[in-house]
């Protein structure tokens, strides 16, 4: 879906990085992370900044980029990226069918804005349907071609680093 709207693979990587999470990055680190030339990353950073989708600020000699949360299309782009990654559908299905889910966190690479092919989650709740969880993990892989790893906790330890996707 996203590939048909955005033809630059580097631009897609940047949109995924900055709009899937509250990430920031600088040119050389992004080029290394994406295994792209600094020139191709620079061109796309400039285009996205000129369009107002990214903002930059100088930190010493380094120019840091991040998503412009004040852009009128910020929420829409964030929603498109989330749907592209399959997270909306995954979280909605899990919360509806798993039982008493109190909180659901995305952790690991996806929480850092890196599309490694594995989505790691933590579900917090009691008496969750583990059989359904196995079924939904297989279906998610078939649909979005990403492995899903889920840990279940009965209570919130309070120090989880990631994105809270659902919470009561």
Spell out the key features of this protein.
4-stranded mixed beta sheet; alpha+beta; 7 strands; Arc Repressor Mutant, subunit A; 2 domains; 168 residues
How would you sum up this structure, described in words?
This protein is α+β, with helices and mostly antiparallel strands. It folds into two domains: 76 residues, Arc Repressor Mutant, subunit A (Orthogonal Bundle), CATH 1.10.10; 82 residues, Beta Polymerase, domain 2 (2-Layer Sandwich). Helices cover 45% and strands 26% of the residues. It has seven helices and seven strands, in the order H-H-E-H-H-E-E-H-H-E-E-H-E-E. A four-stranded mixed β-sheet has the order 6-5-4-7, covered by helices on one side. A three-stranded antiparallel β-sheet has the order 1-3-2. Helix 2 crosses helix 5, helix 3 crosses helix 4 and helix 6 packs antiparallel against helix 7. The longest helix is centred in the C-terminal third of the chain and has 15 residues. The protein is elongated. 23% of the residues are buried. The model has no long low-confidence stretch (mean pLDDT 82).
């Amino acid at each position: 879906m996203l590939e048909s709207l955005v033809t630059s693979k580097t631009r897609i990587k940047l949109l995924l990085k900055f709009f899937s999470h509250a990430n920031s990055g600088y040119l050389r680190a992004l080029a290394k992370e994406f295994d792209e030339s600094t020139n191709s990353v620079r061109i796309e950073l400039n285009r996205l900044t000129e369009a107002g989708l990214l903002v930059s600020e100088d930190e010493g000699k380094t120019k840091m980029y991040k998503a412009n949360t004040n852009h009128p299309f910020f929420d829409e782009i964030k929603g498109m990226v989330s749907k592209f990654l399959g997270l909306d559908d995954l979280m909605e299905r899990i919360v509806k069918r798993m039982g008493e889910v109190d909180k659901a966190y995305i952790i690991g690479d996806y929480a850092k804005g890196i599309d490694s092919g594995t989505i790691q989650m933590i579900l917090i709740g009691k008496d969750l349907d583990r059989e359904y969880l196995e079924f939904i993990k297989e279906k998610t892989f078939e649909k979005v071609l990403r492995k899903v790893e889920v840990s279940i906790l009965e209570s919130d330890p309070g120090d989880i680093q990631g994105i809270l996707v659902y919470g009561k």
